[in-house]
Amino acid sequence: MLQLGVLISGRGTNLQAIIDACEAGKVPAKVAVVIANDPSAGGLERAKKHNIPAVVIDNRQFRDKHIYELEIVKVLKEHAVGLVCLAGYMRIVGQVLLAHYPQKIVNIHPSLLPSFPGLNAQKQALDHGVTVTGCTVHYVDEGCDTGPIIVQSAVPVKEDDTEETLSARILEQEHHIYPLAIEFIAKDKLQVEGRKVRLK
Ligand code: GRF
């Protein structure tokens, strides 16, 4: 069974959605390890509640990003991880992780990429005045939120939306599409051709 390594920085609601989908048998995969770069990440508790190893690798303790990422790779390998899932992981993935897991790292982003990459995507969407935004699961490459797109879900923007209300509605969709994308990968249903990801 596909072993997942989930990288987090915060509360971990996407992590929870992935754990739940795996435990319910909807996704033929198992969360083998959760790694947080921030010791205060709430998602660590979620992992512990499900008896999943929860490891802190604090990026601030490393001067060199290569060495930091080598430490992450070491833990991922110890748990035989086949797919790395970034779930609110607030660091840019570097060469070391990418080289060890080519096309085996995925991310969720709260906008319809390529619109609004980077930080505060929901605020960017509101500020821009779009009427539709959403979320995207994509493969991770060397750019910031630039890799091939696996699944997207559209969310209408309401006139009276605040960053909070819009983020909450997008998050609901995130919790659907992230497990779905992982299910496709676990069932070997995806084929990547350049920027295009096709269902086999
Ligand atoms: C989500 O909005 C995700 O799209 C973004 O960071 C947030 C993480 O939320 N990358 P959570 O920690 O999964 O609750």
How is this structure best described in words?
This protein is 35% helix and 26% strand. It has helices spanning 13-23, 43-49, 65-78, 95-100, 121-128, 163-186; strands spanning 2-8, 29-36, 54-56, 83-86, 105-109, 132-139, 149-156, 190-193, 196-199. With 200 residues, the protein is of the alpha/beta class. The two termini are 20 Å apart. The mean pLDDT is 98. The protein has one domain (2-199): Formyl transferase, N-terminal domain (Rossmann fold, 3-Layer(aba) Sandwich). Strand 2 (29-36), helix 2 (43-49) and strand 3 (54-56) form a beta-alpha-beta unit. The chain has a seven-stranded mixed sheet, sandwiched between helices. A two-stranded antiparallel sheet has the order 8-9. The structure holds 5-O-phosphono-beta-D-ribofuranosylamine (GRF). The site of 5-O-phosphono-beta-D-ribofuranosylamine (GRF) has 13 residues, from helix 1, strand 5 and helix 6.
User: H/E element string?
Assistant: EHEHEHEHEHEEHEE
- What would you say the CATH architecture is? 3-Layer(aba) Sandwich
Strand content: 25-35%
* CATH fold-type name: Rossmann fold
Q: What value does the average pLDDT take? A: 98
Which structural class is indicated by helix and strand composition?
Answer: alpha/beta
Task: Count helical runs.
Answer: 6
Number of structural units classed as domains: 1
CATH class: Alpha Beta
Q: Going across the biggest sheet, name each strand in turn.
A: 3-2-1-4-5-6-7
How would you describe the shape?
A: globular
Low-confidence stretches: none
Distance between the termini: 20 Å
Q: How can the largest sheet be summarized?
A: 7 strands, mixed
